[in-house]
Design goal:
Layout: H1 5-8, E1 12-25, E2 28-37, E3 54-72, E4 83-91, E5 94-99, E6 102-115
Antiparallel strand pairs: 1-2, 1-4, 2-3, 3-6, 4-5, 5-6
Length: 116
């Protein structure tokens, strides 16, 4: 039996995490993230100068997508590499996120959380 989605986010502050990239491939969607780790996370390190969080790279991988809605926000600065998250919700097979990149709504058979 695998871990629940909620337990995979233990000691990760998702709303302080940032989105780096959105990758679409067939019926899969991958979100490249910089997760904000809390002190109790096993990979936590003291944040560097100028950082208010211990950022750690990771991925959210969605497979078997049956519904997908992406709405990209207008960005005057095309060089932006990190997008702040305003809201984030996973409930069962449904996922919703609003961030500076735009909004993502989907339903997927598989939702995996991977940290590098």
């Amino acid at each position: 039996m695998g871990k629940s989605i909620a337990s995979r986010f233990e000691n990760i502050d998702v709303t302080r995490s940032v989105l780096r990239a959105v990758i679409i491939n067939d019926d899969e969607l991958t979100l490249e993230m910089d997760f904000c780790l809390e002190p109790a996370h096993p990979d936590y390190e003291t944040p560097g100068a100028g950082d208010d969080c211990c950022f750690h790279p990771g991925l959210l991988k969605f497979a078997g997508i049956s519904k997908l809605g992406l709405e990209r926000a207008e960005h005057p600065d095309q060089t932006q590499r990190r997008f702040a998250i305003q809201s984030f919700n996973i409930e069962g097979t449904k996922f919703d996120m609003a961030c500076e990149w735009g909004t993502i709504h989907l339903q997927a058979r598989s939702i995996r959380v991977l940290t590098e």
